[in-house]
Amino acid sequence: MRGGEGKPGRRGLSAEERKLWGQVTRLVAPLRRPLLVDAAQPATPGKPKSLSAPTRSIPAATRAAPSLEPFDRRLKQRLARGSESIDGRIDLHGKTQSEAHAALLAFLRNAQRNGVTFALVITGKGGSARDGWSERGVLRRQVPEWLRLPEFRGYVVGFEDAHTRHGGAGALYVRIRRKRSGVRTRPDS
Questions:
Q1: How far apart are CA 114 and CA 128, in angstroms?
Q2: Which among 3, 45, 95, 138 could bridge 12 via Cys, Cβ 3.0 to 4.6 Å?
Q3: What is the CATH number of the domain that holds 81?
């Protein structure tokens, strides 16, 4: 459909507008993107590769963050009973959202650096509002949302609500992702 034909409420371009549009489009050059070759597909001599759908590599900075994994029932039981140790704790009571966010991120970085496997994040259940404008339990709702963000998933494997002995609905068990070593070595083939 050219110039809005068949669409109600749209008008076509006038002769002057078409002339102006033609001048603009002559000045614009198409973007040129480098062709990335798929290394997994070997080139066969005498047969050109299809250029219709080139494979693009994803830069490291834009790779998807690792996904979160739920705890299995037995792991949650071991944490609740104390047979699986909780190596770190952070209490976010009394902090504003921005303070709590920064403190949680710093805590998770340090926990990963120190080899912590499980941590307890205490958010509180949300006490009574001090005035008519305050919300109750903001951190209780926000912390799980933060843990799902890409900036946190580099540190977190998964999380679950804590058992009542560890704070119940006002706390979370967090499994810390192991720190990756900076240098990868490939075995010689």
A1: 36
A2: 3
A3: 3.30.1370.110
